[in-house]
Design a protein that fits this description.
CATH architecture: Orthogonal Bundle
CATH superfamily: ABC transporter involved in vitamin B12 uptake, BtuC
CATH class: Mainly Alpha
Number of helices: 14
Helix content: over 70%
Radius of gyration: 21 Å
Strand content: under 5%
CATH topology: ABC transporter involved in vitamin B12 uptake, BtuC
Number of strands: 0
Shape: globular
Structural class: mainly alpha
Length: 350
């Protein structure tokens, strides 16, 4: 009997590893399609040769490949991984299937900060010429995100990490920031309103190599701390009482979880705008494929979210020829039917 159970465990483990490998391959495939897709007439072989030997390309082709297409495609995968990790930690730590990086209001704070920067840059164009909007918007957005994060962390520490109070406080911040953003939209000029709306739709083309490197470094710095809590997250899915009974300090875990999620979300949103549903749907798909063992679920959530965002990036270029649709719109169109399908197929198991 013991040997049979051991063989079953090995078979399940092999199956999960194979699924993770398949997700990696899927991400690489869509990364390739994302790079070769665009209005210019660059063939697959030209791009392949250009990646190996950049001198084989003309100056214009090198700019298209290395300054436009490659950073756009890479930032899709990296931000997908980042939001997937943040979403998994939020759902597990708060034990709420509808929790996501945006539940805590951090994303809405980033939107309000970016809106403030856009409005001020249009009002004081001459005075703040030394601080262009391309720099001011992500910087102010990041600052407002961290301010919201600080409020949530302080509130969590004060209220002993109760999951319901954390969610309610995050929702309160979310609605407050939405209200203040709406007020700005009401009083801002037409030019500022247009810029704010475009920023909130989410656009991967805003990011270049500096943004790719920054978000990747943030993800790689936070990832080891999340990996240290794999067993804690797995135990939390079986119930808080069981986790507490073996000596896990849930309040302390939630405090540091919110800190990690805040950093991941803030650096993702500040550069590319609001990209919804990725941090919500990606972890659920991974959970459906890989189960509750976070040794496999955590990388699976990152890969599923990266694949979805890369797929959305590809669709944003190809759905309407000659038109680049903001990727935030595409992720909503993809995320809603997936979420409804998960509700019908999994029901109470979410």
């Amino acid at each position: 009997m013991t040997d049979d159970l051991h063989e079953q465990y090995k078979a399940k483990t092999f199956q999960k590893v194979a699924l993770l490998f398949g997700l990696v391959v899927l991400c690489l495939v869509f990364l390739t399609f994302d790079i070769i897709t665009g209005p210019s007439n660059l063939s697959f072989m030209s791009i392949f040769n250009g990646l190996i030997s950049p001198s084989s390309l003309s100056t214009t082709e090198r700019i298209i490949l290395f300054d436009i297409r490659l950073p756009d495609a890479l930032i899709a995968l990296i931000i997908g991984c980042t939001l997937g990790l943040a979403g998994l930690e939020t759902q597990t730590g708060l034990n709420n299937p509808l929790a996501s990086p945006f539940t805590l209001g951090i994303s809405n704070a980033a939107v309000f900060g970016a809106s403030c920067a856009i409005v001020l840059s249009t009002f004081f164009t001459t005075s703040f010429a030394f601080f262009p909007a391309s720099v001011a918007v992500p910087v102010v957005s990041l600052l407002f995100s961290f301010l919201a994060s600080l409020l949530i962390i302080s509130f969590t520490a004060f209220h002993s990490g109760s999951k319901n109070t954390i969610i309610l406080f995050g929702v309160a911040i979310m609605f407050m920031c939405e209200a203040m953003t709406s007020l700005l939209l009401y009083v801002a000029s037409a030019e500022a309103v247009q810029q704010i709306v475009f920023w909130t739709l989410g656009n991967l083309t805003k990011a270049g190599w500096p943004e790719v490197i920054i978000v990747l470094l943030v993800f790689l710095i936070i990832l080891p701390f999340s990996l240290r809590n794999l067993w804690v997250m797995t135990l939390l899915r079986s119930g808080e009482n069981q986790a507490t009974s073996i000596g896990i300090n849930i309040e302390r875990y939630r405090l540091f979880m919110i800190f990690r999620v805040s950093i991941l979300t803030a650096f993702s949103v500040c550069f590319v705008g609001t990209i919804g549903f990725i941090g919500l749907v990606g972890p659920h798909i991974a959970r459906l494929l890989l189960g509750e063992d976070h040794r496999f679920l955590l990388p699976g959530a990152c890969l599923c979210s990266a694949f979805i965002l890369s797929f959305a990036s590809l669709l944003s270029k190809t759905l309407i020829p000659g038109v680049l649709i903001p990727v935030g719109i595409i992720t909503s169109f993809i995320g809603v039917p997936i979420l409804i399908g998960l509700i019908f197929t999994r029901g109470q198991r979410l």
